[in-house]
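Incident log, support desk, overnight shift.

02:14 A customer reports that sequence design results differ from what the structure should imply. Their input is reproduced verbatim below. On-call engineer (initials T.W.) acknowledged and began investigating.
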């Protein structure tokens, strides 16, 4: 699917209007759209290049009921499932849970972007992607994917003007750093781009779009957030924090991939070079990541 220019404000308004009132409290938007909503706050007429609106269902204990309610209502109101690809058809009670398609729905009359439902992990001990089964009244079965550090991405999410919450850019950046303590070989489907490079590139994009004066507050924020979300894993997570960025900055190929994804995403249309992006990464390591490690040593 081709990445299109999407207005964060208009897309969020459309999603918020379509979601059943009783489960709005259970949904948090993350990803490029959420980051752009806050980072472009003074210029909300700006668009971001994205293909999906990631909607996290939280808390996990209410995710199945909320997900079923959302999917049923959207489908009844003209939202249409993605039908292309290996997982273009819904499953049934015989389909293995990890083989179920995700809930991915186009809004009525448009295929510029789609809504995708996810959930936070059932346990803080989760270390890999997991799926939760969603059963609709039609008999169709879908899956809710969860990833280990979604809990961090939605931590301290703020309410928008549309009555729906969005994850904060700094929390989503930290989630991506924790997700990629090294450059993994996994590629984005139908591309030669490593998923790690895209996600870590977004960390640099968020840093570059943030006021650098706010960076000085970030070490304490990040350290406190890790302790809050993963109290039993603080030493491990802080020790590895930023190693993926360091590895990426030392590899011209990986850095180039991060640059390409940034400049077709959050940094689209901005005059930035590979070297400038690398400089942002080096400063982030010194000003923020090393200070998080120092805070951990002082405890």
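02:41 Re-run completed on a clean worker. Output:
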């Amino acid at each position: 699917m081709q990445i299109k220019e999407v207005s964060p404000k208009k897309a969020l308004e459309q999603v918020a209007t379509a979601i059943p009132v009783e489960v709005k409290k259970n949904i948090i938007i993350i990803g490029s759209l959420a980051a752009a909503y806050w980072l472009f706050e003074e210029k909300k007429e700006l668009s971001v290049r994205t293909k999906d609106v990631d909607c996290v269902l939280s808390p996990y204990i209410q995710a199945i009921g909320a997900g079923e309610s959302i999917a049923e209502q959207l489908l009844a109101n003209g939202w249409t499932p993605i039908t292309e690809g290996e997982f273009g058809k819904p499953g049934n009670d015989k389909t293995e849970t990890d083989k179920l398609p995700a809930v991915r729905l186009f809004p009525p009359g448009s295929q510029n972007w789609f809504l995708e439902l996810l959930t936070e992990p059932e346990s803080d001990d989760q270390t890999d992607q997991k799926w939760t089964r969603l059963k609709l009244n039609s008999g169709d079965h879908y899956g809710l994917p969860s990833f280990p550090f979604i809990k961090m991405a939605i931590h301290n999410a703020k309410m928008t003007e549309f009555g729906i919450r969005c994850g904060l850019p700094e929390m989503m950046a930290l989630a991506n750093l924790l997700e990629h303590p090294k450059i993994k070989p996994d590629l984005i489907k139908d591309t030669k781009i490593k998923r790690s490079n895209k996600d870590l590139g977004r960390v640099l994009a968020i840093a570059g779009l943030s006021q650098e004066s706010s960076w000085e507050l970030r070490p304490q924020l990040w350290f406190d957030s890790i302790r809050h979300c993963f109290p039993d894993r603080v030493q491990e997570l802080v020790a590895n924090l930023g190693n993926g960025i360091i590895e990426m900055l030392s590899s011209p190929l990986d850095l180039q991939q991060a640059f390409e994804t940034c400049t077709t995403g959050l940094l689209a249309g901005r005059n930035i070079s590979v070297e400038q992006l690398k400089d942002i990464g080096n400063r982030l390591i010194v000003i923020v990541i090393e200070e998080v490690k120092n805070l951990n040593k002082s405890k």
